[in-house]
Design brief:
The chain has about 325 residues and is mainly α. It has 12 helices and no strands.
């Protein structure tokens, strides 16, 4: 990354993390981490590690079996570690680099990565919708806004997957009709839509769509189940749907290009905002966010190092 990109992200990381830590005692975070029973941490780890198996299976389907699980699994482990550490989603490029070493073209790497992220977003939005429908959000009107946004984005990607070029051409027509292409942002959005459309061209097969959807749902349910197990070991009152809602919300912090170094600051901010929305106090929300984030980073590191070891041995 260039310095002009690194410095703003570093400032963002320090600023948000600093502001949040000023609201709580660091000692509370340390005591909460040390207070989680070891068996919860171990169970949470193995549940989380299982999600990597489904990630590898999904990429195997997207690559149409060109690489076996023994090749894809370590790539997924390393890719996720790099992706969580580097800011602004720049770590995504590690996947393209690693599979190119296995003989897969950069174009196919980018296409499969974009497709995987689209199915991730669909799965996350679906789970988030279920959690919202099963929760009482204390901020007036927020439930309706969230549901409307989820359905809009969900519908957008469903149309894009099933109608692809026809849908893209329709969007182009609307933009041209209202002369929106004169704006730089609109042209940028059209380029991204075009890139996404091209990435989806190869998944017309209903079998590929079906397995991608199932694997994506499995991935995020396992990730959220891991969070649920860890939360059970903390002094915080959160039901299953509450944890799913907050976990799905912070997933957006991973997906968006505002992701900071190792996610510090941005993940805690998303977690705290979501927790407050369902009635958790700010102090408890901040302490639990740092606790879960730090434990999750340990998971990322262990699995990432395991992937490096497998890749080195093979």
């Amino acid at each position: 990354m260039r310095a002009k990109k690194i410095i703003p992200m570093l400032i963002l990381t320090i600023a948000i993390t600093g502001v949040l830590l000023l609201q709580v005692s660091v000692g509370d975070i340390v005591s909460t981490i040390s207070g989680i029973p070891a068996h919860y941490v171990i169970i949470g780890f193995f549940i989380y590690a299982l999600s990597y198996v489904f990630r590898a299976l999904r990429f195997r389907v997207l690559l149409r079996g060109e690489l076996g699980l023994k090749d894809i699994f370590p790539i997924v482990c390393i890719h996720n570690l790099v992706n969580i550490i580097l800011p602004a989603r720049t770590g995504e490029l590690s996947y393209v680099y690693l599979i190119r070493k296995k003989g897969i073209s950069s174009a196919d790497g980018i296409a499969t990565l974009i497709t995987a992220r689209i199915f991730d977003l669909i799965a996350i939005l679906l789970v988030l919708l279920l959690s919202v429908l099963n929760l009482s959000i204390i901020i007036p009107g927020l439930t309706v806004i969230i549901i409307a946004c989820i359905l809009a984005v969900f519908g957008f990607f469903i149309f894009l997957i099933y109608f692809n070029r026809r849908f893209v051409n329709t969007v182009y027509g609307i933009f041209n009709r209202f002369s929106l292409t004169r704006f730089k942002l609109m042209r940028f959005l059209l380029r991204k839509l075009e890139e996404t459309s091209e990435s989806l061209m190869d998944i017309k097969s209903k079998r590929i769509i079906f397995f991608n959807f199932i694997f994506s749902i499995a991935i995020w349910l396992l990730v959220y189940a891991s969070s649920y197990i860890l939360i059970l070991g903390m002094p915080i009152e959160l039901g299953f749907w509450g944890i799913v809602f907050i976990s799905a919300a912070i997933t957006l912090a991973y997906v968006l290009p505002i992701h900071s170094f190792a996610g510090f600051g941005t993940i805690e901010a998303f977690w705290t905002a979501a927790a407050i929305a369902i009635g958790i106090t700010m102090e408890v929300a901040i302490v639990s966010s740092f606790t879960l984030h730090i434990v999750s980073l340990v998971y990322f590191f262990i699995i990432g190092m395991f992937g490096l070891l497998i890749r080195h041995v093979s």
